[in-house]
Amino acid sequence: MPMKGRGTAEYRVIDRWDGGVGWLAYPDEKMQRASHALVGDDGGLWVFDPVDAPGLDELLAEYGEVSGVVVGLDRHVRDAGKLANRHDVPVYVADWMSGVAGDVDAPVERFGRTLADSGFEAFTVVDSSLPPWQEVGFYHEASGTLLVPEALGTASYFCAPGERLGVHPMLRPLPPRRALRGYDPERVLVGHGAGVTENAATALRGALEDARKNLPSAYKKAFQKMLS
Question: What Gene3D superfamilies does its record include (predicted)?
Fold first, then answer.
């Protein structure tokens, strides 16, 4: 099983509901890079951190016309420019994030505490120089949808034994509790792995509270997964 898939992708749908859909472009890769398209209050479709795949446009068309493509992490440019150009829309980048716009081969729009007219609140998850990390999260109050691009994940190397949702291994010593503890979501969507749609608020609290306590077992499991 490769760490990151290459070549022709065959996506698998995850996280599907009336308000959006998620997919894994390379379902067999270890990284489990997840992408999402969510319907905003404006009726448009907002695509987050996409990895492209053949036939993807047909999936997106089920949910409406694409209003914009969003980069939520400084190293999640992925196929944002490619998808934005295909749909003739901008790539949206938080106004405080640096070093991202230059990596996107498409027109860029900046946003602040709300993502244009989508109804998604945008908030800083991590803004750090050591480790170098800039991440913006999104919350849609009407649907109870919380999207965290990297700080949280469900891929096996994120989670200690018994966890449904885990803090990124690099952030476990100092989990982003202040940024995330105020949310009580119905679903948590992540950039690596399928989302959490049952008892999501409980899973979120557990991930943040137990990040340090479960650090040894999480690191052991992640190390074993990377070697397998």
Answer: Ribonuclease Z/Hydroxyacylglutathione hydrolase-like
